Amino acid sequence: MATNNLKAPAVALGTWAWGDSGETGNGYFGSSLNQAELKNVADNAHAAGFGLWDTAMVYGMGRSETVLGQVLKRFARSDYQLSTKFTPQAAGTGDDPVADMLEQSLSRLGTDYIDLYWIHNPADVARWTPHLIPLLKSGKVKHVGVSNHNLSEIEFANQILGEAGYRVEAIQNHYSLLYRASEHAGILDYCRKAGIPFFAYMVLEQGALSGKYNAENPLPRGSNRAETYNGMLPQLKTLTDKLASIGQQQGAAAPDVATAWAIAKGTTPIIGATRPNHVDGLVRACSITLSSDDIAELEGLADATGVNTRGWWEREMLV
């Protein structure tokens, strides 16, 4: 039986971009990463008290997990938490594809347990959710969550786990100023009432809300995120300018304010960290106070952009 409820941190560290090969055009982000700098990211995070790292087998088909495992191995395992995922769309053909994918993740991450294991996408809730139960019983997985599930799928997964004495302990969905489907669909309210942490990914929309990019300085050409966001950067300018101006008043920058908004909404943002200074931004984000007027103005400007940033892998949350 699960006895210790998951304690969600103020922010979590995302490593989706760590799966890119570093070659522009080969991956989502087009970021040039090297392991020495990623070690500095981990050092900064460790010093700042941030310890939950989120990855997945499908981030670079194992590259993100492998690099993360190498970067963290010089820390005591008790000093950090690992969050990774079973992705049904990448399931193998063995008798227990969930256990098989977990074993591969454990090997790449250099550990014998995962703190938080997710069903990544709801391909078949009835089929895949029960496979989490023996993993919880074995201790190889300490807590479980579901990602990209709509409210009825979350409730169904919770029912399946509940019959074995467990529960869905975390939800992870795309949630940002530009994409609030989980809020409109009642998922945030559900989490609040049930005491389930909600982890928000793509809070910065892969950098489009960082204020760093604009029509004159677009996202890295040849990357998937450039294809998705470069065309909408002009529509985002008023919003990112407002994020920057609020930040200036509090000694912070635009992405810090976008992250602070997600915290103010009661979520744990998962923020991609590829540079040591990204961690400094998270420290600032945790100290920012946004008024209800600030939040309302930001959401109004976001709604006025008229853009839709739902990922190709996501289904509508409103059903």
UniProtKB/TrEMBL annotation:
Superkingdom field: Bacteria
Record-linked Gene3D superfamilies: NADP-dependent oxidoreductase domain
One Pfam family recorded for the sequence: Aldo_ket_red
UniProtKB keywords: Oxidoreductase
Domain NADP-dependent oxidoreductase: 11-301
Protein name, per record: Aldo/keto reductase
Species, as recorded: Dyella flagellata
